[in-house]
Each structure stands twice: as C-alpha cells, then as structure tokens.
Amino acid sequence: MALIQLMLVLATVxxxxxxNTIRIKDDTGQTAxxxxxxxxxxxETKQQYVSAGIKKLKQLLxxxxxxxIRSVDQDRSERTLGEVYVDNRSVNLRLVEEGNAVVERDSxxxxxxxxxxxxxxxxxxxxxxxxxxQQFNPVTSRNTLR
Length: 146
What we know:
The structure is a single chain. By secondary structure, the protein is an alpha+beta fold. The chain has one domain: CATH 2.40.50.90. Helix content is about 25%, strand content about 30%. The protein has 3 helices and 8 strands. Strand 2 (about 20-25) and strand 3 form a beta hairpin. Helix 2 (about 90-95) runs parallel beside helix 3 (about 115-130). The longest helix has 14 residues, at about 45-60. The two termini are about 25 Å apart.
C-alpha cells in the first residue's frame, strides 16, 4: 500500500469562478483558486445545465462559508486541485450525485479512495436522468490538468 500524502486546508469561500472552480481564503489569510477534481461539466453541455451547476455550487458554497480542501496537486495555472468538503461531505461528489457534473475520468486518480463512489453516483444520476443527464447523452470532455 502506497503512502498517501494528504494536505488539508481550512478555508473560507470567497466566491465561485465557474461550475467547478472556487476562490477561497485560507486560515493564514492567503487567497487561492481551487479547481474541483474528479468532476467536470462538459463544454458541449447546454447552457441551462451549466447555469444550474453554477447555481448549485453557489448554494452549496455561499460566500463566507467554511470549507476543508483536500489539496492533491497544482495545475499549470497554479490553481490548487482539490476536493472540497462541507460538514464532512464532499461537494465534488454531491455535484455528481445530483447530476450537476460528470466524473472526469482523466483526473479520477486524484480520488482513488472514493473512485467507486463517484462512478456509482454518476451511474445513478444518469439512470434517474438528473440535471445534465436530462440531455440524451452529454459528451464528457477529456481535459488534462497537467
């Protein structure tokens, strides 16, 4: 079993940049941009579903709300790549469960310990035709983070 380096950041939400990117202020007062890993809203998705995803993210993470970030890496733009938690619950996973995002297979290795949960959540949302799954078959993107 490999040793996993885990970095948890206590932070406050400053704002929502887009459907899977937020701005935070950490407990030292530094601001940062966090890209939510393991999820995506495909670029080809109809605008109404993108807007619904942003609205849901704003609902889950209103400005000023305390969060814990499981920071896993940084991308080329120096954004923190991470999983966001509120009340011990993954916001990333919740977005997939409710059909507001799909699983991004290219970054799923960042969520290795909860990979199965993400895939099951996506399958359930798809079967129930929740959120963006109301479209016949949203195209998943293959964005790379590095």
